[in-house]
Design goal:
Layout (H helix, E strand, L loop, with lengths): L12 H20 L3 E2 L5 E3 H7 L5 H5 L2 E4 L5 E4 L4 H10 L9 E10 L11 E10 L4 H17 L5 E6 L5 H14 L7 H9 L10 H6 L12 H16 L5 E2 L11 E8 L8 E7 L3 H4 L7 E7 H5 L12 E5 L5 H11 L5 E3 L6 H10 L4 E5 L1 H6 L1 E6 L4 E6 H6 L4
Parallel strand pairs: 1-5, 7-8, 12-13, 12-14
Antiparallel strand pairs: 2-4, 3-4, 5-6, 6-11, 7-9, 9-10, 10-11, 14-15, 15-16
Helix pairs in contact: 1-5, 5-9
Bound molecules: histidyl-adenosine monophosphate (HAM).
Histidyl-adenosine monophosphate binds next to strand 6, strand 10, strand 11 and helix 11.
């Protein structure tokens, strides 16, 4: 038997309904915030991710679905959505136009990670990217929008924020961190030892408890920010406070992708186990330029859809449409004929096996029909039909002619 690949799964039934409900809700809110939909290819040149997510990141280093295609091109299945949208922004010369551009997207992402609860090799993100707005008000607005999506879906969360500084303050901070880490090397894990040379700030969010123990007195980025980064960070905190969005400053929050500067944030759920980040994002003012576009400030986020599915409760679907059934074999042709009239514009279910009334009512309930319409012996003789409105719980027998008038309601 052939099963899905490790870390990948089919989406069906209740989860598929929740997925679509999530996409509808999040898309509507994003559209209200001025975002328009974009879909970029799943496959991109590997170089795109190396240059954006970063060669020293785990995603690029260990987790890419990378291969050479039949034309000899080095390509990759996207591990995240931002790089593709930035590539789209530059490919379409939007960086050369005045103004602000905001895009939302959703779709599958691929990371060759060790699968566990909430961590898959194929997973789906819903993301937004805002280009051309340097103001920290936009960082706040992005966070406000994510909170609006989670609030609308009744999903509880806590919010961690940090500032990763800029090209002025980050290198100085990085140097001081590397210096601090020098005499801790023997107590740090293998990964952290490697990171000291490749990407030292990633040491800060190592999950290993022994490493965290060593980091207790490490210098903090939040106390090493330059004036501009500091004032933006203070403003962000004040905007969140003024607008009742609770947060915690977590100076160890560095994110696993290399393109961020200034604001970085993560939304976390306490209800889903160890893989608890349900959304992450931040500002990435240098990325457009780094991918050969005109310098353009940008900020964005992505929500991990699989991680929120279990937290979503679907609204009770309203009953709709018609269920047709016959209690006598000779009435089946007749219900098929009547049902035909209802099929444009209504959800219609026709049962082709004659059954007792109770069984038909069960069938109508199963498909959540509003009306259960049945022809039995008497109705067949009298050219009538028995109809029950399952919402109002009213039932009556009417002539077929009157019943067809329901079509005009
Ligand atoms: P990220 O933090 O790598 O950021 O991913 C965003 C979210 O995707 C995570 O918070 C998590 O919910 C979900 N996620 C990540 N990996 C997995 C996995 N293996 N299985 C299930 N869910 C996962 C980004 O990808 C950035 N592109 C976000 C961004 C957009 N920053 C700026 N704009």
């Amino acid at each position: 038997m052939i099963n899905p690949l490790r870390g990948m799964k089919d989406l069906a039934f209740e989860d598929a309904k929740k997925f679509n409900f999530f996409i509808d809700t999040a898309s509507k809110i994003a559209a209200n915030y001025g975002y328009s939909y974009v879909e970029t290819p799943i496959l991109e040149e590997t170089a795109l991710f190396k240059r954006s997510v970063g060669e020293s990141s785990d995603i690029v280093n260990k987790e890419m679905y990378q291969f050479t295609d039949k034309g000899g091109n080095d390509i990759c299945m996207r591990p995240e959505g931002t790089a593709g949208v930035v590539r789209f922004f530059i490919s379409n010369k939007l960086d050369r136009q005045q103004g602000k551009f905001k895009f939302f997207y959703y779709g599958p992402m691929f990371r060759y990670e060790r699968p566990q609860r909430g961590r898959f090799r194929e997973f789906h993100q819903f993301g937004c990217e805002s280009f051309g707005e340097a103001s920290v008000y936009e960082d706040y607005t992005i966070i406000e929008m994510i909170a609006a999506i989670f609030d609308e879906l009744n999903i509880g969360y806590t919010l961690d924020i940090n500032s990763l500084g800029c090209s002025e303050c980050m290198p100085k901070y990085r140097d001081s961190l590397v210096q601090f880490l020098q005499d801790k090397k023997e107590h740090l894990c293998e990964d952290c030892n490697r990171r000291i040379n490749t990407n030292p700030i990633r040491v800060l969010d190592c999950k290993n408890e022994k490493c965290q123990e060593q980091l207790k007195n490490a210098p903090k980025i939040t106390t090493s920010l330059c004036e501009s980064c500091n004032s933006d960070f203070e403003k962000l905190k004040s905007l969140l406070e003024q607008n009742g969005i609770e947060f915690k400053v977590n100076s160890n929050l560095v994110r696993g992708l290399d393109y961020y500067n200034k604001t970085a944030f993560e939304f976390v759920s306490s209800q889903i186990g160890a893989q608890n980040a349900i959304a992450g994002g931040g500002r990435y003012d240098k990325l457009v330029e780094f991918l050969d576009g005109k310098p353009t400030p940008a900020v964005g986020f992505a929500i991990g859809i699989e991680r929120v599915l279990d937290l979503i409760e679907l609204p009770k679907p309203k009953r709709s449409g018609f269920y047709f059934g016959a209690m006598d074999e000779n009435a089946i042709d007749k219900i098929v004929n009547i049902a035909k009239n209802f099929k444009s514009g209504n959800k219609v279910t026709v049962e082709f096996t004659h059954k007792k009334l109770k069984a038909h009512l069960k069938g109508a309930d199963r498909c959540n029909a509003r009306y259960c319409a049945i022809i039995g012996d008497n109705e067949l003789k009298e050219n009538s039909i028995w109809v029950k409105d399952l919402e109002k719980k009213e039932e009556k027998t009417v002539s077929i002619e009157d019943f067809l008038k329901l079509l005009k309601i």
